[in-house]
From TrEMBL:
Chain residue ranges for the region called Disordered: 1-20
Pfam hit, one: vWA-TerF-like
Feature: compositional bias, Basic and acidic residues: 1-14
Name assigned to this protein: VWA domain-containing protein
vWA found in TerF C terminus domain mapped to chain residues: 60-142
Transmembrane segments: none
Top-level lineage group: Bacteria
Length: 203
């Protein structure tokens, strides 16, 4: 799995995109998460810890998730890894976007399908939609090389700001703790946000 830093359009799984500015409090309160999604409270708190470490409290951002559905990902759907990733992203989104929704796109050979992951109606959502989509296609073997290339494109010759970040979590994504995942997703966000505001990409 891989992730790109907030930017313009989503590319691959675990993508976050933003084009907004900041207040102070989380977009959705802890009490609301406790009421609608008590099973996500631990993830919500972990995401909040990472946001505070990066000085990102109150930042508002739209969050998107793009999931690989090629055959090589079969075991990760079967063991719940992809459902858990979606819940991690939804928990992070609750701090950044007050609609409680993460748009999700599945891809393999082509776009397989899409859905909204909604706080309180998230349980088994990814698993069920994956099963309903049927046949799993293929992806290009050069996917990781492409993502790494996105992360190294020259600024400003090839793009206005550095809007992509890549990291590989290995063959056992669940070995990466929630705190580690959130920290890695957000580690370049403050620098990007400053550059994007300076370039007037966002306000």
């Amino acid at each position: 799995m891989c992730c790109t830093r907030p930017g313009e359009r989503p590319h691959h799984e675990g993508v976050i995109a933003t084009n907004s500015s900041s207040g102070r409090a989380s977009a959705i309160s802890l009490s609301k998460v406790q009421e609608d999604a008590p099973d996500l409270v631990t993830l919500y708190e972990a995401a909040g810890d990472s946001l505070r470490r990066q000085g990102l409290e109150g930042v508002r951002a739209a969050v998107y998730l793009v999931l690989d559905r090629s055959g090589s990902m079969r075991s990760y759907y079967r063991d719940g890894t992809m459902q858990h990733l979606a819940e991690q992203v939804l928990s992070l989104s609750a701090h950044l976007d007050d609609d409680g929704i993460v748009p999700v796109v599945f891809f393999s050979t082509d776009v397989d399908g899409s859905t909204d992951l909604t706080l309180g109606r998230h349980r088994t959502r990814i698993d069920k939609l994956h099963e309903n989509l049927g046949h799993m296609g293929r992806t290009n073997d050069n996917e990781f090389a492409f993502l790494r290339k996105l992360d190294t494109l020259a600024v400003p010759a090839r793009r206005i700001v550095d809007n992509a970040g890549f990291f590989h979590v290995g063959r056992n994504p669940r070995a990466t703790t929630d705190h580690q995942l959130f920290d890695r997703l957000l580690q370049e966000f403050p620098e990007w946000l400053t550059a994007a505001r300076t370039a007037r990409v966002v306000r």
